[in-house]
Amino acid sequence: MKIFLVLDPPRSTAQMQKIAIINGKPRLYKPVNVKKARDTLVVHLRAFKPMVPLEGPIELYVTWLFPRGKKNKHNEWKITKPDTDNLQKMLKDCMTEVGFWKDDAQVVKETCEKVWSDEPCGISITYEKLNNIF
Fold first, then answer.
1. pLDDT of 23
2. For residue 65, is it left (φ>0), alpha (ψ between -120 and 50) or beta?
3. Domain boundaries of the chain, sorted by first residue
């Protein structure tokens, strides 16, 4: 299945959690910008939710297309933050929450890339169920 989320890709990631000391104990919390990024992804993903969550091993291929600036060229690699692994973590968590699969641990093979892009910007996602046998 291939989907394209037309949006300005979020730059806030799941790794941006903060720690607060409450009653002398450290507590993790998500800053507003991380919650907003997560909510944006969930809203866009809901339109593509499969009827039934996939079971078994899954392959995931994602291209993050960020709006290019004056110094960048269309389809040039984006070698600045955020890191691909941090982007992927939030995306897979959101896909799990929406119901694409039961657990993101099912993703056994994945490719992620990030590039600068002219319009449209967004996230291109291809996912498919793999055979259980390698």
1. 83
2. beta
3. 2-129
Give residues with Cβ within 8 angstroms of 47, minimum separation 6: none
User: Would you call 121 helix, strand, or coil by DSSP?
Assistant: coil
Largest CA distance in the chain: 51
Q: Which two tokens stand for residue 10?
A: 């979020």
pLDDT for 53-92, tens place per residue? Answer: 999 999 999 999 999 989 999 999 999 999 999 999 999 9
CATH of 2-129, one of 3.30.1330.70, 3.10.450.750, 3.40.50.300, 3.20.20.80: 3.30.1330.70
SS3 72: coil
Q: Where are the beta strands (DSSP E) in 1-68?
A: 2-6, 18-22, 25-29, 58-67
